[in-house]
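Example record for the data management plan.
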Amino acid sequence: MQREIQLTADGFSTIAIPQMRVTYHSRHGAWQESRHVYIKHGLDYMLQRQPRHEPLRVFEMGFGAGLNALLSLQYILQHQKQVFYSAVEPYPVSAAEAGLLNYTALMNNGLLTDAFAVMHAGNAGEDIPIHALFTLHKIKLPLQQYLRAAGEDAYDVIYYDAFAPSAQPELWTAEIFRQLFEILRTGGILVTYCSKGDVRRAIQTAGFTVEKLPGPPGKREMLRASKREEKLLR
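Corresponding structural encoding:
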């Protein structure tokens, strides 16, 4: 499937798939969207609310261009937290394609430049030591196949960054979110850019407590869903 590099409104690049009419990030700003949805309301929220001494475990659907992982690495280096980061991506971006993305040039950090290259060059199915504080594990499987084999209570934070429901409706069902609920530890959270009513209802049906939050540029709202203790007592 053909992929193209495009610039978004904040100057950061993204990857587009013309055949599907989708982009990996918001055209209104790739960096702004990732920072707002996944770092501010996901990773930072969890660490501020539940500081942990053991590594925080993050799961991303899907790894894509690697921007969410790169910004997560930047955050944990600034805050000296340890993260084990797993990401599903059945159609990985090649190292050559990753080299065309301008993230690290705009972030102007040599350490992040080297780390980003290792993220894309590392083999799926192996623990990739990006930094003493950050280990990456890429999973080259469709989400549904991975979830059938995943253990319960495995993660603290889920970044849900699948293509929009109009492009991949099978990834936005109550059954998918029920399985995601199972792999999330009690007290954990799931964050996503998508706030459509049917998506919110599917997440609630799966057992999550859902809150609407202000969205990134170009989107009115986003969702954060929590796995709370009382939900386990239904």
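Summary line stored alongside the record: The two ends are 44 Å apart (CA to CA).
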